[in-house]
Amino acid sequence: MQQGISRGSSDSMTMVLVLFLTGALAGLLPPAASPVTAQVRGADDLILEGKEQLQTGLDSNDLDVIRRARALFERATADPNRSSLTHYYVALADYRLANLLYGTDRRQTLSYLNDSVEHLKEAIRINDRFAEAHALLSGSYGQKIGLSPLESIILGPKSGKAIERATELEPDNPRVVLLKAISDYHTPKMFGGDREQAMAGFQRAAELFDEELIDDPLQPDWGHDEVYAWIGMAHNDAGAYELAREAYEKALAINPDFGWVKYVLQPQLPPQPARGLSLYSPASGPPEGAEAPSQV
Fold first, then answer.
1. Terminal CA-to-CA distance of the chain, rounded, Å?
2. How far apart are CA 108 and CA 180, in angstroms?
């Protein structure tokens, strides 16, 4: 009997000591991160990695890299604190994929554009004051019109309403101004398009990009190199090849790896006359009665 009481007392003392030590150690350990804090940190990392991969994919015109970026953004949508922003980035990846596939795979292009529209609607539902989302929604509608011109009756007003809302919210946002100018450039004149107005928009967007400072790396920051690509393309279409060449050089000064300019737009320019060479064959000389042209 005495032994039983002693053993029980010993067990009780052991339990008290264990509980005491456990409590003491718990007080020394740092508090565990809350699920929300850990979730936000994870979403931020996914966004930053996704943005880096998206840029890499755009520079190299690599669909698979852009799709990997899209998958990272989609994973980040699980965080309710970043959901408007992450839905925007999924849509941006869809928009880029559609651009690269445009003219080669209509079905897949349309699928990406439809997905872009749905993600942007969700981003706007969460935050109706997100000007970047409204502007990109307008651009996505515009791309769909390019694929199905007969839908312009329905999609045209939607695109116009979206860019108007974006401009109302952030009139000096360079991406908003750029997307509005792209719309003006591609919209037929009979439906309100105006290439002179578009060029003025490109130039204004370029000035805004030159001045833009973004403190938060999570926020959209694309477009600075692209605006000069659009300026160059507009000059090229107008036959102003030297102005186009200058604009492309500015784009590459901002982003030397810009694949659209290096591999698509620049090669479309006519070759420059070689400096120091005359415009006629030295062996034959100038045509009879003509003066020798000045050196280039």
1. 117
2. 25
Type of residue numbered 68: R
Specify whether the CB–CB gap between 135 and 173 falls below 8 A: yes
CA–CA dist 190, 76 (Å, integer): 42
Query: Alpha-carbon distance 1 to 19, whole Å?
Result: 27
Helix ranges (DSSP H) in 170-295: 174-186, 195-211, 224-237, 241-254, 259
Distance between CA atoms of residues 119 and 132, nearest Å: 13
Which pLDDT belongs to residue 274?
54
The verdict on residue 284 lying in a domain is: no
185: tokens are 């450039």
pLDDT digits 0-9 by tens, 176-235: 999 999 999 998 887 788 899 999 999 999 999 999 999 999 999 999 999 999 999 999
CATH number at residue 110: 1.25.40.10
For residue 15, the model assigns a pLDDT of 41
**100 vs 7, 70, 143, 173, CA distance in Å?**
78, 14, 12, 25
Q: Specify the DSSP class assigned to residue 29.
A: S
Note down the domain range covering 229.
172-212+223-258
Buried/exposed code over 28-61 (b: 16+ C-beta within 10 A; e: otherwise): eeeeeeeeeeebbeebbebbeebbebbbebbbeb
> Residue 144 above 60 pLDDT?
yes
Q: What sign for the dihedral angle of Cα 126, 130, 132, 135?
A: positive
Within-domain flag for 27: no
